[in-house]
Amino acid sequence: MLDQLEPQLTGVPRTMLMTTRARVEEDQRSDGIFHDPTVAKWWQSLVWDSELDPLFSPIAQLSWAVRAHLFDQIAQRHLAKYKDAVVIELGAGLSTRYHRVGQNCRAWIDLDLPEVTRLRQQLDRETDNHRPLGQSVMDFSWMDELNSEDPASLLVIAEGLLMYFDVNQGQALINRLRQKFPGATLAFDVVGGLTKGKSAKALAQLNAPLKWFVKSEQDVAAMGVSLVQVRSLIQENCRYRDRIGFYRWISWISNLPPLRNSSLILETIA
Length: 270
Ligand SMILES: C[S@@+](CC[C@H](N)C(=O)[O-])C[C@H]1O[C@@H](n2cnc3c(N)ncnc32)[C@H](O)[C@@H]1O
Known about the structure:
Elements: H1 11-28, H2 37-43, H3 58-81, E1 86-90, H4 97-102, E2 107-112, H5 114-123, E3 130-134, E4 154-158, H6 167-180, E5 185-192, H7 198-205, E6 213-214, H8 217-221, E7 226-232, H9 233-237, H10 241-244, H11 250-253, H12 257-260, E8 263-269
Parallel strand pairs: 1-2, 1-4, 2-3, 4-5, 5-6
Antiparallel strand pairs: 5-8, 7-8
The structure holds S-adenosylmethionine.
The site of S-adenosylmethionine has 20 residues, from helix 1.
């Protein structure tokens, strides 16, 4: 049994405790969308930050679990297609995707800021094909760490990350990736104007303000990537009718652009 770890995180890094807890709770459900014994084990050593309680509702938990599942599917398809796939998760937090679906890749890197990477290093085990990297995503030197002969075999995942950067930073990341790894897959999520409400205010109070909002996936396509697949998180949540309870009525209007585009999971080619 590990010692109790009380993450002393602030700003955006602090938010990863919520997405981590969402996966723990998913693992505990008998009807869970996925199982994640690794994160459940890590959670026994982590101390929850109760100031995050107001942001952690059952609907938020479901959304983060569904989002994780959608990114898992993208990773699984990529790994099935490319025998020598290299995967990097940007802003990985305590993502356990490698353990859930990624172990047969050639290389998998979990990149996050040094304070989060230090926490991961106390919980996770490095292997020949899996390691953490502690640096900012905006310091593009991480691209030099990727040894991928065929750029198309590279999968870059940014789950719950790019909305914390402004559009110019998003564009800079896309430009650099296209320059260095043309044909690589970039999977990420974006948020729409509807998210500017209560949760955005609570995030801003945590010093983790959302900065980049899109009208639709066309805003992203205009930045120079090709869209492969677009999923609306609200529509995906509506598949779990028994779990959304009162919000079931939203499924009737989830095609309306502000709702559909409130959170989109995009698989793109750089
Ligand atoms: C909402 S959390 C998502 C974590 C993880 N992807 C998940 O879904 O569980 C956002 C993550 O982005 C990381 N992050 C924020 N700014 C970053 C930066 N400049 N470079 C690398 N990671 C960053 C935070 O530390 C945090 O772990």
